[in-house]
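Much of what follows relies on a compact textual record of a protein's fold. A record is reproduced here so that you can trace the correspondence yourselves:
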Amino acid sequence: MEDRSNDAASFGSQTNALFRKNLTYQKRRACANFCLISFPVILCLLFALLQGVFRHAKKQAAVPCGCTCANDNGDGKCEKPCNWEQWVKDSGNGCPVYRLPQWPPLLQVPANRYRAVRTESDSFMDLPDKSCRLKGSCPVTVLFTGSNQTLGEIVARNMFTNSIVLDRSNLSDVVANTVLGSDIEFEVGKRIDPAFLSVSPLYNVQYQCSPDSRLAVSVPIPQSGSAFEQEARCVQALNLWRNTSTAINEELFKGYAEGMSKGYINKILAAYDLQNSNRKIFNATIWYNPAATMRVARSVNLASNAYLQFLKGPAAKMVFEFVKEMPRAAGNASMDDDLVGALGPMFFAWVILQLFPVVLTSLVYEKQQKLRIMMKMHGLGDGPYWLISYAYFLAISTLYMLVFVIFGASVGLKTFRLNNYAIQIVFYFLYINLQISFGFLLAALFSNVKKATVVSTICVFGTGLVGAFVFNVLIEDSSIPNKWKILMELYPGFSLYRGLYELKQYTYIGGMQWKDLNDSDNGMKVVWLIMVLEWIVVIVVAYTLDQIQSSGSGSPLLLLQKLWKKPLSSREPSVQTQGSKELENADKPDVCKEREQVEQLLVQPSIGHAIICDDLKKVYPGMDGNPEKLAVKGLSLAIPQGECFGMLGPNGAGKTSFISMMIGLSKPTSGAAYVQGLDLRTQMNRIHTKIGVCPQHDLLWETLTGREHLLFYGRLKKLKGSALKRAVEESLKSVNLFHGGVADKKVKAYSGGMKRRLSVAISLIGDPKVVYMDEPSTGLDPASRSSLWNILKQAKKDRAIILTTHSMEEAEHLCDRLGIFVDGSLQCIGNPNELKSRYGGSFIFTMTTSVDDEQGVVSIVQGLSPNAERTYHMAGTQKFEMPKHEVRIADVFNAVEDAKSRFTVFAWGLSDTTLEDVFIKVASGA
């Protein structure tokens, strides 16, 4: 019947053990956690301070609102009725502006020095000569094209008139019957057209200018009772026809882009492509200078009026009376006063994304330090690990976001204060879960903390920059299909950016509410849906990749390669392979006997054998064009309960590969192994509950104490209450870590020997039935090593131990049987005395004399043993191996006494073969 007494602790027990350990670990990292959570607080306070300084400086520089009396000379009457320049600046002061001025609509007229003229590179001869620039008399050019030239010429003629009699006191009459323009560029954000604040004159565009064609324009000033008097000078409009729009494009390019590189600029007033216009269709395209965007309306009005007159006659006209901006109240919400708002979603994205490197590097650190593997080898399941790790990251991320939102709102950040808090909570909660799951996914691809840190940091800042300068443009461009925006939002960073963008946009209109989610332009619901679906998919994929790695299949990047090679490996082993194996082991009777015992145990299982390995192989795939590496070549081994088996072998022999397979770090390529009757290939999780591991390098948490380590691993072995406390104290005492307060010191204060003893104690706690120890005495002083040997001698009485070591003394002292492993194969197996007897049937004779007497020593040895071999020769010192069956010890003593009578003997010695000699002989022979 299968023994389940040492099965894994329950899910709850494992979760409790890991939770207690992590809670203690995080308490020790309280300072780091506090700094992390305080990061948004510091940023919020910093920006609140900067925003206060910004607003104070702006207040100090502010001018009074509206028109004020500049000087009354003490008589109560204003010498200057209105400080007009101050009123102009009201737009930046938060002043109320209810009665905005009505300004005559203007055209953007090129300055005289830029008006289009003939040039060397221009093939159009109908342009004026450039000498007009010197005289200040250049006309303004208007280009026309279309499919109907007759219609085009009529429309062009209707646009501009000759001088007519005007009621100059009536601004509407002036605007309706003249075409006014200015060469002063319009400044976006101004409440007043700067053409009426400049000393430069206005222009009255006409077909022909009379000698006295100046026009006085009176523009009333709101809130002042006065008006601006501005002179409008006549400028001639030169209407020119072009056969194609391509010709206009070429002319515009040569006159502006190419002209700039050659030192001149040819600007036109406007260009019109009437396309297929006729009496039933009016279809026009207008070219204009980008600097004249705010004055394009007048160009459209001119074309519309010209076409209307073509249809209805000269009397028909759409009067374009004025232009003005919308009024505003005092203190109207302006994001210009909010520095963070001015930075936009990029700033908020950077702050929130700072959590991503924390999640990723924490997971990769446990992977790099092999702490995750160490916990798994002692019985911790994947479920409890994921649950506790995910819960920790979720808790720290939630605290981080709560602090960010609360402090951001408290210092006046509008994105937090104006938008509905429930909407913000849902958005941030979904994102931090997606971010955590994405961290688990990427952690499967990294094994180095430095690389993970670099990549995650690039992701943080790259996401913010690309979002601000690329994705933001796509969002605002309504011509781009939504499917492309959604495709980009599949990247979690852009989902975050889109949500922050929506929150920011709604702050301008009082904040986002639940009803706003139904707006057609609101992308928040789509972002939520993407986050939920992606969260589920990413967490499933991440868990799958984690299972691939934890099962010993290696990096996920090699999965396809392994699947591709699987059909080939399924054909192993063949009959030929088995035959060659028997031939190879023909001269190794002890290895063959071990294989036969394994085959018998597989047919007739025995509960007395803790470990059975049957033809175990491990092949590492070739990389960079190199062939495959056969690390373990068909190992068969049976280890009974109560035996300490020592594995000896040179570096690279395959010992570590064998141990890795047995503890679940890697999967066997072929063959089988059983631990306490459990199949290594399918029941590794249960095997982990029955084994203890002391790895070659100490895998410990620097901030935990020795006692806390043992408490954690003891709980994983189902120890509770007084039994747990007693087992921990006994383990500490057995490795001499109990007294003097050593048990309660942090591991980072331990010496190398103390850490090694703690690793041994961890491997033995919970009474595991099988223990793997990889060079356990490395770094120990003689006293500690002797104490450790006594512990292991006691421990092996009721468990099987596999020990790897390079110390022949340790192997001989501790191991019941030894196996020498060379080049992936077991070369010999047996107890130390058997091996010395089998492979070391010689005496070692050493003698030191003068160089002149060396030949005499050789003669003496040949007389004692005809088959003796000299193995060492240096400056009079010689060493010989003499077969035991040819030599009697008494004869050796007699021969030495005889030699002393004939020449001087400085030193001599006779010794039996040591285990080290056996190891060297077997390794070199293999």
Q: What stands out?
A: Residues 107-312 form one domain. The two ends are 42 Å apart (CA to CA). Residues 80-84, 332-337, 565-583 have pLDDT under 50 and may be disordered.
